[in-house]
Amino acid sequence: MIPHFTDHSANERTYLAWVRTAISVMAFGFLLERFDIFLLFTSRAAAKVTEGLHTQASQWLGLGLLLVGALMIVGATIRFYRNRKAIEAADSSMYGDSWTARGMAVLLVLMAIFLTLYVARQIAALS
């Protein structure tokens, strides 16, 4: 029997949840990076010139989300091994949130706000 098996399996489930979330963020970043193709197709289908249409921001934001997803996997891996070591240790330790998780959350919120404003501006340029 593996000592503290339930703790280890909970740690692994949490790690896998972080990895799934990171993959989703990266997939959304890839989709957003390709958002310019949709905007160009829409403007051509509308058969009108859209001077206020900017596609560079979606490419940079998409690349940023790809980077954030990769950093999430790195952070999740570090956290997994740190928690694994704490579970196996004989002494008890405090469980605390890391500043990197908070920083990533703030970064994602800022990206979401920027994306909302960006899409609203693009929709306004198309109409």
UniProtKB/TrEMBL annotation:
Membrane topology: Multi-pass membrane protein
Organism whose genome encodes this protein: Dyella kyungheensis
Sequence ranges assigned to domain DUF202 in this UniProt record: 7-86
Alphabetized UniProt keyword annotations: Cell membrane, Membrane, Transmembrane, Transmembrane helix
Predominant location category: membrane
The protein's name in its UniProt record: DUF202 domain-containing protein
Localization annotation: Cell membrane
Pfam families attached to this UniProt entry: DUF202
Lineage start: Bacteria, Pseudomonadati, Pseudomonadota, Gammaproteobacteria, Lysobacterales
Residues spanning the membrane: 15-39, 60-81, 101-120
Signal peptide start-end: none
Transit peptide recorded as keyword: no
